[in-house]
Amino acid sequence: MADRAGLGRSGMREVAQAAGVSVSTVANVLSRPSIVAPQTRHRVEQAMAAVGYVPHGPARQLRGVPSPIVGSITLDLANPFYAELNRGIEDALSEAGCMVLACSTDLQPAKEKQLLGLLQEQAVRGIIISPIDPDPTLLLQVSQRGTPVILIDHPRRQLDLCAVAVDDVAGGELAAEHLVSLGHRRIAFLAGAIDPGPVARRREGVRLALTAAGLDPARALVDVRMSDHHRSSVSAAARAVAQILATRPAPTAIICLNDTAALGVLEGLDAAGVRVPDEISVVGYDDLHFAARLSPALTTVHQPKHQLGRAAAELLLDEANPDHTHRETHFRPALKVRASTAPPPRRGR
Amino acid sequence: MADRAGLGRSGMREVAQAAGVSVSTVANVLSRPSIVAPQTRHRVEQAMAAVGYVPHGPARQLRGVPSPIVGSITLDLANPFYAELNRGIEDALSEAGCMVLACSTDLQPAKEKQLLGLLQEQAVRGIIISPIDPDPTLLLQVSQRGTPVILIDHPRRQLDLCAVAVDDVAGGELAAEHLVSLGHRRIAFLAGAIDPGPVARRREGVRLALTAAGLDPARALVDVRMSDHHRSSVSAAARAVAQILATRPAPTAIICLNDTAALGVLEGLDAAGVRVPDEISVVGYDDLHFAARLSPALTTVHQPKHQLGRAAAELLLDEANPDHTHRETHFRPALKVRASTAPPPRRGR
DNA sequence: AGCCGGATTACAAACGTTACAAGAGCGCGG
DNA sequence: CCGCGCTCTTGTAACGTTTGTAATCCGGCT
Q1: Closest partner residue to B54 among A7, A67, A121, by Cβ?
Q2: How far is the CA of A244 from the CAs of A238, A247, A248, in angstroms?
Q3: Which of B293, B294, B298, B340 to mutate to test the interface with A (most CBs of A within 10 A)?
Q4: In which band, very low, low, confident or very high, does the pLDDT at B19 lie, cut at 50, 70 and 90?
Q5: B5 interfacial to chain A (CB closer than 8 Å)
Q6: Taking a C-beta distance cutoff of 8 angstroms, is the pair B208, B169 a contact?
Q7: 3-state class of B165 per DSSP?
Q8: How far apart are CA B305 and CA B279, in angstroms?
Q9: φ/ψ (deg, to 5) at A189
């Protein structure tokens, strides 16, 4: 009766034996306690405690119970943006007794493909993905094979999948409109070596805003790319600064693909002795915790990271619902104006 | 023969039928291809592609194949420290085809217990945990029941478990010695509402260093605690600043439990018009990406976050090894001196 | 005393996979 | 021409659950 922990795992069989009942009675205690006589139930419960019974999830899955595990495929789970996103997913899932299996692709389509395979094999409840591969056929296949897929920040077109997104074009527009209204006429857009969809759309938003302001994007917009060794994105950005400073005519503002890159940009500008925002303005993207505390405080585009994850998880959980229909949840970005942006310097044409 | 994706999942039975062989032959193609005649093998492989076969992990597990899933239980996966840690875990695991199931306890022992249960049920390959509950018996039980447990930053004593740790006492000492050598004689230690082991040990390290310097900890060390609504740790810290500033005699330096809190402290000091480091010095902990870019750049204690996770995952993977012996991997913290620390102001006694 | 119904509990099959033992087919030497 | 050994394939049982159906027990009724 005491807590003698049998070594190794014990299953219903051991419990049944210890309680002097059949395996199915043990099963009944677990899944339909009401049909078991109270006395028997107690005996079985005591036996479960005595042998240290832990139900075996995989076996249950085999019998059709859905897995409590949800896969999350992002570019990098250490990136604070995705870390917050995953946390939002986790919070929504935990209310349903589910958990996040967090995976990083490091922008490599091959890795993404491999992860999709692994997750399918695990028969997860579903997959939430920020796709790097623009081709959606694989995702559709996964979905058709029975693993629900929720897209994050991917243009869904008429795909038969659920999605959550924040409007990246609008985000780019916000940043550019702000700079234009301050008087900037030549703006650098700093991106990585490869453009995930969201970054490309932000650039597109910038382009649209410039055009709308009567500027010629071909002149007003300077494209800069970092050599993206994914982990050291801070220092890569610092190196990109040199390139921007060497451009003629010189941009008077930089829009960065995210706050982490902006961090590196500020560092690089500081090292180069260029003052922000007096000599050049800097805009970030994401509004991470530290953005407001940088020197100078970073003007950036806010994204509802936690809510985004939560919404994705909620859509995923709803897929179990028999009358579920695929749909899309939208969020709007918001500009946070802080100290890193100001009118361009006078001599800056 | 074409890629007609059957809706829903298909198993070996469907493959066998499509290839005109028995289920066991399909199984052989998968697990011991060499014993299958090349011609048959090709036929089966084509059939697998045709029906879109995906192996069913849980069923394999039932037959004894270990799960590729590893649980990671930390205080908060959105916290950059743990996000980096998880990334280290993921990197080591991915080399072995494994994945991280990332969970947050939010400092609640009850949640930790619940997660341990869920992970056990999933029959994960093992669990890597930064425990909040100081009582190790539950963890030992989990381990005895067949789920390997790796501790992170937990005093292992003679527990029969693997562990990785960075020496928190030494970290506290580093911070305090630095401040003492600058001339500080009254130092505030800012902690959360509850102390996880690591924070308590850092405080202990500070105390030891002060004593070693001939100071009386009862006078030289001021304990301050934040009301810890876990998510808004930045603003909670800002509020704690008021409390510190009101203390008499006034501390001339603050050691924060982590960089995130330091972020809030800098913000609060800024709002209160107190200059750092001229009027007060601030030391962080963790050395997160942004620490070097704060204003002023934050002096902090560096922890090898990624390596810590990697080491934990490697220990866990080694548990499968038949001649595995439980052991401990140690790391040393390192002080990063930057601009947020300086000698105390003159009048500050 | 035999039978019935309700309340409990037991049996058996199935989920998708693996591994072992056993079977089928075949060429070769005796 | 038979049987042997070889290669390749298949049948079968088992992993720990769940679930539908059958079996058992009981008291009460006729």
Answers
A1: A121
A2: 10, 5, 9
A3: B293
A4: very high
A5: yes
A6: yes
A7: strand
A8: 32
A9: -115, 115
Q: Does B90 touch chain A (CB under 8 A)?
A: yes
What b/e string do you get for A21-55 counting C-beta neighbours within 10 Å, with b at 16 or more? beeebbbbbbeeeeebeeebbebbbebbebbbbbb
CA-nearest residue to B70 within chain A is A101
**CATH code of the region A69-167+305-332:** 3.40.50.2300
Q: Do domains B69-167+305-332 and B168-304 have the same CATH topology?
A: yes
Half-sphere exposure of B299 (CA within 13 A, CB side): 25
The proportion of chain B whose per-residue pLDDT surpasses 70, expressed as a percent, equals 95
Half-sphere exposure of residue B44: CA atoms within 13 angstroms, side-chain side: 22
Q: CB under 8 Å to A255, separation ≥6 — which residues?
A: A172, A175, A176, A179, A187, A188, A189, A190, A202, A206, A283, A285
Cβ atoms within 10 A of the Cβ of B144, count? 15
* Nucleic strand D near CB of residue A21 (< 7 Å): no
pLDDT at A48 over 60: yes
CB B22 within 8 A of CB B44: no
Nearest residue on chain B to A114, judged by CA atoms? Answer: B97
Q: Does residue B222 have a pLDDT over 70?
A: yes
Does A294 contact B at CB distance below 8 Å?
Answer: yes
pLDDT the model gives residue A147: 96
Q: If DSSP codes are grouped into helix, strand and coil, which group holds residue B282?
A: strand
pLDDT in tens, A222-247: 999 988 655 556 667 778 899 999 99
Q: Output the average pLDDT for chain A.
A: 92
- The CATH number given to A168-304 is 3.40.50.2300
Kind of pairing, strands A99-104 and B99-104? antiparallel
B94: closest chain A residue by CA = A103
Task: Delimit the domains of chain A by residue range.
Answer: 69-167+305-332, 168-304
Pick A145's closest partner by Cβ from B9, B77, B293.
Answer: B9
Q: Looking at CA atoms only, how far is residue B88 from chain A in angstroms?
A: 9
Q: Is the CB of A11 under 7 A from strand D?
A: yes
B11 in contact with A at a CB cutoff of 8 Å? Answer: no
Q: Do A290 and B58 touch (CB under 8 A)?
A: no
The answer, as to whether pTM is greater than 0.85, is: yes
Which of B5, B79, B290 minimises the CB distance to A263? B290
- Residues of chain B with Cβ-Cβ distance to A146 below 8 Å are 7-9
pLDDT tens per residue, range B82-120? 999 999 999 999 999 999 999 999 999 999 999 999 999
pLDDT at residue number A4 = 46
Band (pLDDT 50/70/90 cuts) for residue A349 is: very low
Helices (H), chain A: 12-19, 23-31, 38-51, 57-62, 80-94, 109-121, 137-144, 168-182, 197-212, 217-220, 233-246, 259-271, 305-318
Whole-number pLDDT of residue A91: 98
Model pLDDT, residue A227: 80
- CB pair distance less than 8 Å for B57 and A122: yes
How many residues would you count in chain B?
349
As a whole number of angstroms, the distance between CA B22 and CA B295 comes to 69
Which of A52, A84, A97 has its CB closest to that of B78? A84
For A103-156, write each residue's pLDDT tens digit: 999 999 999 999 999 999 999 999 999 999 999 999 999 999 999 999 999 987
Q: Is B95 exposed, middle or buried (0-12, 13-18, 19+ CB in 10 A)?
A: exposed
Task: Give the count of Cβ contacts less than 8 A between chain A and B.
Answer: 169
Instruction: Please answer whether residues B162 and B183 qualify as being in contact, where contact means their C-beta atoms are separated by less than 8 angstroms.
Output: no
